[in-house]
Design goal:
The structure is a homodimer. By secondary structure, chain A is of the alpha/beta class. In chain A, about 45% of the residues lie in helices and about 15% in strands. β13 of chain A pairs parallel with β14 of chain B, so a sheet runs across the interface.
């Protein structure tokens, strides 16, 4: 963990290093991933079978064997402990409610001369959701990808997830049943992304591919982008916290560790004008670490990629945080909404002392798939709009084209496009 | 030009070939473009100077020489013919008005237990717009890229455009002045995309890169995607027309040719249930072709990539058009709005006999940067949202976290993430 002050002479150097967090060097996996994609495009399920044998240690008997049966999903759901089942239903309902509010509407406007202009918003026909599998299979990831696609109105939702040793994760199966997903394929990694982007004998080609994954999955998503749309290219998880003396040091420490426990590459950064808080949080981190089952991962992450930065005031803290543009940002201050106007870049903003980041991972409602590594400067959280697209609507009356057709024809002519010009002129009647 | 009937026995084969239109094989330029990007990242302006010498046939004297002076833009504007100046102002105002209507708003909602959930929408800090230059420099492209960025509220707008022989296109300069753009650099191709994505001595690194271009530009955009956001990967222009007997064959012919004149690779497809209309349009195309200054390009395009398809009824025509998902779609029928609900995929939809596609290229208001090659199945027109991004807003009260914290902690525990669990539990007071 590094402790730096924004007034240190070598601050900029240290801070620039922090900004480099989460940058993925995809160059070294590009040729491998490119090869995998080419194999799937050429040989479809035959290539999938080979990749599954190699990476997941089992061999499908036939095409149907790639698909998880609805019976096994329904059985996994029935086997859920009641409290967990209720909690997942609560999560499902709250996530659905939030995403329904974010659904864009078609709109149009009219002009007195008979013009109609607008935008028609429609769902994509089909979406492919990648959900990591095996031990790190998170049912919450399934909910967070399926629900926006369902709210968008996507007719055809396909899920791919790796099943090492042909042993599907029961929690994930249960979540599939809960969400009403029925096309789930036991395929992982770059192969799964290619299968959904280009289609195989029984995995349908989709229009949009979303979902988290390792560097191979991220690279494959970048490579198929253009042939399909994708949500974003995401890296290791991060949390940034802006806090003042009103914050509870123990809470700040466990919040930082809640990212650190994800992944040794995760980064957790506290920025505060309070030296007192900084010192107290450092102590609390050590106290908490010893109590965590995932201590080894969390310790490595916090030691190598954790940081506490003390600034001269809160303005300076906010300004640094905007440069970091963290995936998750907690604002643990006395009056957090006062800072909101000044926060420019963050995937999700958690305001106040009762809003730990983890509440947003599961049940709050907003999506937990968020831009990482500073890409919150230009990417948005996964949402309903990722599964929809727009068409411009233009309708001119005879009066309307007479009113502005001449200007249109002149610009077309100036650009040397006379067929454009003529296509307008033939409609002019005045 | 191919003439096919949807009832022909070999129809599917012919139609599949049509669907392959506009697919760009970027594999063969990838290594060249990758090399160009690496050079710009490593050597910045030094590499730019070399690329400009090679591709644009002049050598900048120094860094400042890359930038177009505001004086030259203002002079170009002053030199505009009055009618053209007024037409460009009309276009600017109408495009601005339309895009203002499309600007998304931040929103939030509250719950009785003190929860606040919402979404904050903010502009990106900086945008880089690529505008093709030389003879094919279109001032309309500048307007269509600059205005959505301005409406979004982007503070830092950078334009790159190639200037062969160091001779900027005067129309483009005038349009820059009209739009109030002041950072315009004489850099083209993949080099320009890389310069804006990674920054050089004087070209600022941006967050979003948009704009049309050839296959090198498109490939560069795909390669920098992830380090910056991009709008879409676009190919040759297209028009699809759905028409019935109420359509004027001469109008249909010139509308088809208005795409064909763009580019030999452009494609123009009429689908109609009327054999009579199909025959008449064919004759009118030949009549018009002989009158076009760009006859050679238009003829090659229409012969090699034009198509007239006759279907058994309008439903079949709409269904085929949805498979094509054209960039521009004209609906030239008696009651075009009756078909609107059934049109699923198109970049822009032009409804009725008085709405030629060209009106949307210049003055109607909606953006003319649209998804091509069937990508309207998942991409949207360029818009204000391409220059903005969202942050989720989450604020819980003590009552709120007490209400659903237990469920959250249980799911976190089930996923094996106990720091997540604890970060919620420490806030529970009931």
């Amino acid at each position: 963990m590094i402790f730096i002050k924004s007034t240190d002479t070598d601050f900029n150097e240290n801070f620039q290093e922090l900004l480099g967090r989460g940058k993925m060097d995809i160059a070294y996996v590009s040729s491998i991933v490119g090869g995998i994609i080419d194999e799937i495009k050429a040989n479809k399920n035959k290539a999938l079978f080979e990749h599954i044998a190699k990476f997941d240690n089992w061999t499908p008997k036939n095409d149907d064997d790639l698909k998880i049966s609805q019976e096994s999903m329904s059985k996994a759901y029935d086997n859920l402990d009641k409290a967990l089942k209720d909690s997942l239903h609560l999560a499902y309902e709250r996530i659905k409610l939030y995403h329904e509010k974010q659904k864009p509407k078609s709109w149009f406007d009219t002009e007195a001369n008979g013009t109609i202009l607008g935008q028609k918003v429609t769902p994509v026909d089909s979406a492919g959701l990648y959900i990591p599998g095996g031990k790190a299979a998170y049912p919450s990831s399934l909910l967070m990808n399926v629900i926006p696609a369902q709210v968008a109105g996507v007719e055809n939702i396909v899920v791919c997830t790796p099943t090492p040793d042909n042993e599907p994760n029961e929690l994930l199966l249960a979540a599939c049943h809960l969400c009403g997903v029925d096309q789930v394929y036991k395929v992982g990694g770059a192969s799964a992304i290619a299968a959904m982007a280009y289609g195989t004998q029984n995995i349908p080609k989709v229009d949009v591919v979303t979902g988290p994954g390792n560097i191979f999955v991220a690279t494959a998503k970048k490579m198929v982008f253009g042939d399909v749309n994708i949500d974003m290219i995401a890296g290791p998880s991060e949390i940034g916290i802006l806090a003042d003396d009103s914050a509870n040091p123990s809470h700040m420490a466990i919040d930082l560790l809640s990212q650190a426990e994800h992944d040794e590459m995760a980064s957790s950064i506290l920025i505060t004008p309070s030296q007192k808080l900084a010192d107290a949080v450092e102590k609390e981190i050590e106290n908490w670490l010893q109590k965590l089952p995932r201590e080894a991962i969390a310790r490595k992450s916090i030691e190598e990629r954790g940081a506490i930065i003390v600034t001269k005031d809160m303005d300076a803290a906010v300004s640094l945080m905007n440069e970091i543009a963290p995936e998750h940002l907690e604002v643990a201050t006395m009056s957090p909404f006062e800072l909101l106007p000044y926060i420019k870049h963050a995937g999700a903003i958690f305001l106040g002392h009762n809003t730990p980041e983890a509440i947003g991972d599961y049940v709050a409602g907003p999506n937990h798939t968020l831009p990482t590594g500073g890409t919150a400067k230009f990417y948005s959280p996964l949402g309903v709009e990722d599964f929809m697209k727009k068409s411009s609507i233009i309708s001119f009356s005879s009066a309307a084209i007479n009113e502005i057709g001449e200007e249109c024809a002149l610009i077309a002519n100036t650009e040397g496009l006379t067929a454009h010009e003529q296509s307008v002129r033939v409609r002019l009647t005045k």
